[in-house]
Amino acid sequence: MTSPSPSPSPSPSASPSASPSVVPSPSHSAAPSASLSASTAVLKAEARLFAREPGSHFWIIAFPTILMTIIGLIPVFREVSDDLGGRRFIDLYTQVAVLLAMIFAGLQAMPPVLTGYRERGILRRMSTTPVRPGSLLAAQLLLHGAVALCAAVLPITVARIAFDVQLPRNPGGYALALVLATVSALALGAMVAALSRTQKAATAIGSAVFFPAMFTAGVWLPVQSMPDTLAGIVGFTPFGAASESLARAATGSWPAWDGLAVMAVWTLLLTGAAARWFRWE
Predict the structure, then answer these.
(1) pLDDT > 70 in the chain, percent
(2) Suppose 185 and one of 57, 84, 102, 139 were both cysteines; which one would form an S-S bond, judging by CB atoms 3.0 to 4.6 Å apart?
(3) In this structure, which long-range contacts are made by residues 61-67, counting pairs with CB atoms below 8 Å and at least 24 apart in sequence?
(4) Mind listing the pLDDT tens digit for each residue in 167-184?
C-alpha cells in the first residue's frame, strides 16, 4: 500500500496570509514629540529640585524686599529731594530692589547649578539619552527667569503699601525694561557658567561679578544720584541701563531707546560668548 503523497504547499499567491507583511515606517513626528516630552520632564524635575532650595528663594525673593524695607524705614529716605528731581530716595530704591532679584538669580543661583551638573558628569550622561543637555540649560534659564520676574512683584507691592510708592505709570515700558534686564542677567550668569570649570569656581567668579553688578544697579547709590560722569559710564552697563529705564518707566515716561539698546546688545554679546565657550563636560 502506498502512502498518500504530501499535498503541495500553497504558493504565495494562493493564500493572502502567505504574502509578506508590510511593516509601517516610523512616523516622522515621533522624534519631535519624544524630544518635547523629555524637555517637559526635565523642566518638571528641575522645578521640583529648585523648590527644595530655600537659600535661593531667600536671596532672590525675600532679601531684596527686606533691604528695601530697611531703607524705607529711615525717615530721610522718605522725604522729597530736589536733587532727585522731586522724587524720594525710596522711590528710586524700589527699582533697585527689583534689579537685585535679577542679579541674584542670574549670578548667584544659576551658575553653580549648571557647573555642578557638568562637574558631576550629569550633562555627559544626559547626552546619551533622549534628553539633550540643551533641555537642561533651557529649563534652568526658564526657571530662574520666571522666579526673578515673579520676585519683582514683591518689592513693588510692599513699597506701595508701606511707603506709598506709586505703581509704574508706564506699564508697557516698565515690562519691556524688566524683561530685558532679566534676560541680560541670565545671559551674564550663563557666561559665568561657561567660564567656570568647577562649582567652586562658578561661585567665586559669580561673586566677583556680583559686586560690580550691584554697584551699577545702584544698590549703594542709585544711578540717578551719581555724578554725571559716573552715571554716564554706568549707563553703558546692563544694570545701569536697566536702573535708568525702570526709573523712567515708573514715572510715566517711555524708557530711553539707548538704554534699551544697551541691554539688548549686552544680552546678544553675552549669549553668543556663553554659547561659544560653554562645554557640556
Answers:
(1) 84
(2) 102
(3) 61/101, 61/147, 61/150, 61/151, 61/154, 62/154, 63/100, 63/104, 64/97, 64/98, 64/100, 64/101, 64/104, 64/151, 64/154, 64/155, 65/97, 65/154, 65/155, 65/158, 67/97, 67/100, 67/219
(4) 999 999 999 999 999 999
Q: With bands split at pLDDT 50, 70 and 90, how would you rate the model's confidence at 4?
A: very low
Q: Mean per-residue pLDDT for 91-110?
A: 93
Nearest to 183 by CA among 144, 241, 223, 133: 144
